[in-house]
């Protein structure tokens, strides 16, 4: 937390105490501009990118580690700073262990594969990052986009592209990205980001950077930094933060989801601080294994709406997929047929966002199944209500 933030917290004029002062600071789907506790990993990524600071393209690379290990936090924060380091800006960036690098003519771009799930979407996102004008989303084919990319890059332009969240059920693979960038290799290199180890990834680059799970003390630091921005002073004790960090087993996403849920529960009850019951309830509300909420919020709007309605249904309404689909289709704000909702629910189960749980047989025929969300529903409900997309 910087000095301005510390001062602003003491200038609050609300007459009523407010436990949660910033939900975004606690959110598992948001990343701070300055990630906590991953300095060595950040340096390893910068070491690989060093040629760019000497006006040369680095080789392709693959950054990997389990869910919640800070991959996206590091890459999104780093590339947001590097984007301005083009031939026109001639800016430099300081790091913790080196002097400022020389001016760079190499440009940088960051693409989230969760938001760009097809070859067309990836090409469109990259071109959109390289041009000043807005690239149309309609009336263009993927080959046209790639031709425009080749024209824009030309012979004297060099770009390093980070492609995040590769290899998930809804996203492209590392091999897809390697094939896409191969024709552009003279002027473009890429940094893929995924969970699978290099040995399990087709076309994985030789250069790799591993991010292991957080250690308990490191995760405690992450949670302390987030809660210091998101909660009122003394909103949660260090002992309760440490309890969540030890439970989360190195996964920052799950730890943040548990703290978020605990704080939201305490705030809803009108308490000024998170207590032990809030913490245990927040932990219990995070399924294990847990689907990243980033995946959930990257789904199309109609699927997010279906999920938002699903989590509000009673147990009776969710006793089978058919019953749930009928209740969702009839709900206010849902403009989808029951057949469409049924198809969406089965698709969500296929990609692992929800799990089909077989019910006990009540008669002849195949026993019905119900859907159980595999993500923190309390956190999703609050973020959805806040308009997170």
UniProtKB/TrEMBL annotation:
<feature type="domain" description="Orc1-like AAA ATPase">
    <location>
        <begin position="35"/>
        <end position="180"/>
    </location>
</feature>
<dbReference type="InterPro" id="IPR041664">
    <property type="entry name" value="AAA_16"/>
</dbReference>
<protein>
    <submittedName>
        <fullName>Cdc6/Cdc18 family protein</fullName>
    </submittedName>
</protein>
<dbReference type="InterPro" id="IPR027417">
    <property type="entry name" value="P-loop_NTPase"/>
</dbReference>
<dbReference type="Pfam" id="PF13191">
    <property type="entry name" value="AAA_16"/>
</dbReference>
């Amino acid at each position: 937390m910087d000095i301005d933030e510390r001062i602003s917290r003491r200038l609050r004029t609300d007459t009523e105490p407010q436990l949660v002062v910033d939900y975004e600071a606690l959110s598992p789907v948001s990343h701070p501009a300055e990630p906590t506790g991953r300095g060595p990993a950040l340096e390893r990524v910068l070491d690989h990118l060093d040629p760019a600071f000497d006006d040369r393209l680095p080789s392709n690379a693959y950054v990997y580690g389990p869910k919640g290990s800070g991959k996206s936090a590091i890459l999104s924060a780093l590339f947001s700073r590097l984007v301005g380091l083009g031939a026109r800006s001639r800016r430099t960036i300081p790091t913790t262990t080196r002097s400022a690098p020389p001016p760079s003519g190499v440009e940088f771009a960051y693409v989230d594969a969760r938001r760009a799930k097809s070859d067309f979407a990836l090409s469109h996102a990259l071109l959109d990052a390289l041009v000043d004008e807005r690239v149309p989303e309609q009336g263009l084919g993927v080959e046209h986009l790639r031709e425009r990319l080749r024209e824009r890059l030309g012979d004297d332009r060099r770009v390093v592209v980070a492609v995040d969240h590769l290899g998930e059920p809804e996203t492209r693979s590392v091999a897809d990205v390697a094939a896409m960038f191969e024709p552009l290799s003279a002027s473009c290199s890429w940094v893929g980001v995924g969970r699978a180890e290099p040995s399990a990834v087709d076309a994985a680059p030789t250069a790799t950077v591993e991010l292991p799970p957080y250690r308990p003390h490191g995760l405690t630091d992450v949670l302390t930094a987030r809660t210091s921005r998101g909660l009122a002073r003394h909103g949660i004790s260090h002992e309760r933060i440490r309890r969540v960090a030890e439970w989360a087993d190195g996964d920052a996403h799950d730890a943040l989801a548990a703290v978020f849920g605990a704080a939201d529960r305490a705030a809803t009850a009108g308490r000024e601080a998170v207590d032990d019951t809030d913490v245990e309830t927040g932990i219990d509300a995070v399924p294990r294994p847990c689907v990243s909420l980033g995946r959930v919020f990257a789904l199309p709007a109609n699927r997010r709406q279906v999920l938002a309605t699903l989590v509000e249904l009673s147990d009776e309404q969710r006793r089978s997929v058919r019953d749930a689909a009928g209740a969702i289709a009839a709900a206010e704000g849902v403009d989808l047929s029951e057949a469409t909702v049924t198809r969406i629910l089965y698709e969500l189960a296929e990609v692992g966002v929800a799990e089909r749980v077989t019910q006990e047989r009540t008669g002849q025929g195949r026993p019905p199944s119900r859907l159980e969300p595999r993500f923190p529903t309390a956190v999703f409900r609050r973020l959805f209500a806040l308009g997170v997309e």
